[in-house]
Amino acid sequence: MILSMIKKNKLLVLVVLVYAGIFIFAPETALKSVNNSMYYLLEMIQVLPIIFLLTVLIDAWIPKEWIIDKLGDKSGFMGNVFSILLGSLSAGPIYAAFPLSKMLLKKGASITNIVIILSAWAVIKVPMLLNEMKFLSIEFMAIRWVLTVVAILIMGYLMGLFVKKKDLPEDTKEEASLSVNTDYCNGCGICIKIAPEHFEMVDGKANVKTQEIHKENRMKVKTTIEKCPVNAIGME
Ligand code: SF4
Q1: Does residue 57 line the site of ligand 1, with CB under 6 A?
Q2: Comparing C-alpha atoms, which of 235, 193, 201 is closest to residue 218?
Q3: What is the pLDDT of residues 60-104, one digit of tens each?
Q4: What structural domains and CATH numbers belong to the chain?
Q5: How far apart are CA 120 and CA 115, in angstroms?
Q6: Tens digits of per-residue pLDDT, 153-197?
Q7: 208: Cβ below 6 Å to ligand 1?
Q8: Handedness of CA 216, 111, 156, 95 (dihedral sign)
Q9: Cβ atoms of 221 and 182 closer than 8 Å
Q10: How many CB atoms neighbour CB 43 within 10 A?
Q11: Residue 123 · residue 89 · CB < 8 Å
Q12: 235 by DSSP, 3-state: which?
């Protein structure tokens, strides 16, 4: 059980171990690092729920056809302009752009326009331009904006040329609520033989290892449910 939890959260465990090491050998650096991490954690807690809500609302309310028309492969130069506006008028740090971009991509936006949105979000946001104008002059801001937009467009078109949607990873995992009723389980081990990725034996009873089911394993898990002689396995 503990081993499977460690396996599932490898990155988190590694971070905790690194922190423990730094605390032992350089406690001051470790404290600074904790403070920085807390700052970003708090920022993410404030920003991400709003972004997820926005993403869900856009996903539910804006029809796929509209996204394809405005941001899809055939949206042309107007699609690029719309993408620059979308990225420039956004708020929040760049990582907030990723869930939104993934949803737009899924609904038919082109790779070129996604690159343009992400790049505009990162480097030509309106508040950033206003600050630039205030501290570095309007000429500086205007020339940088023009050069940056040109660079973003070139990068977007090159990315669209070299990266195809089929090259991007699909969601191959899904979460399921898999359970074993240990009162019924007789420890025959059939489920472990069929799907060792999902079941293990603990104290003579089957135990669920992970709720994350890869697409290719879904049939195997279904088979365990059918083959379990005492109907102890459940999945929702
Ligand atoms: S197949 Fe059913 S009875 Fe057999 S070990 Fe798995 S859960 Fe238990």
Answers
A1: no
A2: 235
A3: 888 888 999 999 999 999 999 999 999 998 877 888 888 889 889
A4: 2-47 (no CATH), 62-167 (no CATH), 173-235 (3.30.70.20)
A5: 8
A6: 999 999 999 998 877 776 555 666 788 999 999 999 999 999 988
A7: no
A8: negative
A9: no
A10: 14
A11: no
A12: strand
Q: Is the CB of 178 under 6 A from ligand 1?
A: no
Can you count the helices (H) and strands (E) in the chain? Answer: 11, 6
CA of 224 to the centre of ligand 1 (A): 8
Residues found in the chain: 236
CA-nearest of 138, 136, 50, 146 to 90 is 50
- Going by alpha carbons, the residue nearest to atom 3 of ligand 1 is 185
At 43, list the tokens. 């920022």
Distance of CA 121 to the CA centre of its chain: 17
The model's pTM: 0.62
Contacts of 67 (CB under 8 A, 6+ apart): 104, 107, 108, 109
